[in-house]
Amino acid sequence: MLMAHVVPAGCQVQVETGRGRVLAAAGLGAGRVAAVAGLLVGRQAHRRLRRVHGPRRNLRALLTSEFHFLPMDLFISKVMPVARGPLKFFNPRNRREGGRENSKITFVTESKGDGGCDVDRMKINSLTINSKKYLSLTVEYIQLALQYKPLNLGQGFPDYYAPENVTNALAAVAKSDNPLMQQYTRGFGHPRLVNAIAKFYSKLINRDLDPNKEVLVTAGAYEALYSSLQGHTNLGDEWIIIEPFFDCYVPMVQSAGGIPRYIALKPKSTSGTVTSGDWVFDRKEMESLFNEKTKGIIINTPHNPIGKVFTLDELQFIANLTKKWNVLVISDEVYEHIVYEPYKHIRIATLPGMYERTITIGSAGKTFSVTGWKIGWAYGPANLLYNLQVVHQNSVYTCTTPTQEAVAIGFELEMERLEQPDCYFRSLAMELLPKRDYMAKFLREVGMVPTIPEGGYFMLANWSALENKVKLHEETDENKDYRFTKWMTKNVGLQGIPPTAFYGPEHKTLAEDYVRYCFIKKDENLKAAAKILKKWVS
Ligand SMILES: Cc1ncc(COP(=O)(O)O)c(C=O)c1O
Q1: How far apart are CA 277 and CA 267, in angstroms?
Q2: Atom of ligand 1 nearest to the CA of 223
Q3: Of 476, 529, 481, 450, nearest to 537 (Cα)?
Q4: Per the database record, which ranges form the Aminotransferase class I/classII large domain (predicted)?
Q5: Contact 82, 49 (CB under 8 A)
Q6: For the segment 147-166, what is each residue's pLDDT rounded down to a tens digit?
Q7: How far apart, in whole angstroms, are the C-alpha atoms of residue 346 and residue 302?
Q8: Mean per-residue pLDDT for 217-224?
Q9: What is the DSSP annotation of 41-90?
């Protein structure tokens, strides 16, 4: 029988589940949503927590009777699933069920918890959650594009057709005579897809991957990142993040209770021909970031937004530090097949002693140019993937069946023609190379200094020589690159992305003179972009 009563201070709840009591509280800490949870657990709840989450360090933290700061999503993914029976949450300010509009957490209604703990309704003060701070850059810039309708070179996806073999496969799956193709599939990955992924990467990393334990299919690489960080972060753990970074890394680390530690890639030169290889990290600085609180490092190669393909020497240096400090690597390799000759993508998991500590992340969206399908994956040792499975199971649970089947078919075809030039994993970079070179040329012609990427499909360009042509004072954002990109969107009709969004608070000034453009766009649109810029500067 459920009993819940309000405990004073903040929005705290105490829930008796019949198997023990969970005392939790939710409130706002330091401008971000946080939940304070302390557990006073009876033996059974204790045992169940262990069964569900395993004997992990963050679980031990939860199991003390002290209060801990927990992010809201950690609370939902880790505490809620183990409390069987209905949960009632109360707003103590109101002292009755239902809450009050202006309180921080308005209310969470009772859930029907016979086998789980679905939250029927959760209303969190909209002012807090919807504040600009929590909206990703992409969300803000999509809105801007909708309003001003510029030529959009901001977002990272093709504006032309995806390869026919995968779209045909999806069409065939939709009409398949197997009715199960339209129903739920295995939660940790559709069997045909995990088999294909395991077979493909087993070959690439020269190790037999177990499709059921060493591969997890996720809702895009995004969810693989989220499940990795959520599943492997204890409160106060530090993650080393290389700037510029894909913008979700930081909020994901923070929402898991971790602390980002930043190190910036800096260009060795800023004039003449600059390539992404010129952007390097300082090795002493990198070394100094590792300490006993370090949980791991997130690397991204080929890199967004710089296009850097990390060298063997750089990866070896990072690998040695992770082994020295016995920490994890999350290797975001979503652009693994988009590498321009003569550069080669190196998987850090293949370096000696690294598979054991590495979670490698891939994306069907980037691999097959179908970003709208939102299928991604993580592979790595079973003990590391287990934590991701727990988070995935309690959040997404299972990804869409037809898209997984179609991606599996795509993999199977490419595996057959891996050594041939028409293999998509080869032809995509060949198709993009002239686009890259064309963009670099027109950016130079208008006075920008592009960084020529070795991989990926983004180009960073320094626009400082054009500063006198932009009325930066007409925009109000703190960072110059935001003002530049917004002003350009509104007045010139070309949209790029401000790269300071990819930096922590201390290093934003490093990127203020840059803009990121994406070149996986139709030739006619790249030509139109060149025309817009040339007309503007003339
Ligand atoms: C570096 C990086 N990682 C992850 C992702 C997310 O990939 P997905 O669309 O598969 O979620 C992106 C998307 O742009 C990216 O650039």
Answers
A1: 8
A2: 11
A3: 529
A4: 150-531
A5: yes
A6: 999 999 998 999 999 999 99
A7: 9
A8: 98
A9: --HHHHHHHHHHH-S-HHHHHHHSSS-EEEEHHHIIIIIGGG--S-----
Q: In the prediction, which pLDDT does 271 show?
A: 80
Going by the DSSP 8-state scheme, the letter that residue 105 receives in this structure is: E
pLDDT of residue 44: 45
Residue 11 has pLDDT above 70, yes or no: no
d(CA 216, ligand 1 centre) in Å: 16
Count of beta carbons in the 10 Å neighbourhood of residue 101: 8
What is the 8-class DSSP label of residue 184?
A: -
- List the structure tokens of 121: 């309704």
Environment class of residue 473 by beta-carbon count within 10 Å: exposed (0-12), middle (13-18) or buried (19+)? exposed
Residue written as tokens 């016979």? 114
Q: How far apart are CA 237 and CA 479, in angstroms?
A: 29
Confidence band for 138, pLDDT divided at 50, 70 and 90: confident
Domains of the chain: 137-160+424-537 (3.90.1150.10), 164-416 (3.40.640.10)
For the Cβ of 220 lying below 6 angstroms from any atom of ligand 1, the answer is yes
Q: Ligand 1 pocket: which of 225, 363, 373, 518 to mutate (most atoms <8 Å of CB)?
A: 363
Choice between 137 and 179, residue whose per-residue pLDDT is larger: 179
Computed from CA positions of residues 520, 525, 531, 532, in that sequence, does the dihedral angle turn out positive or negative?
A: negative
Residue nearest atom 16 in ligand 1 by C-alpha distance? 304
- Locus of tokens 């003179």: 513
Distance CA 190, CA 169 (A): 15
Residues 311-344: tens digit of each pLDDT: 999 999 999 999 999 999 999 999 999 999 999 9
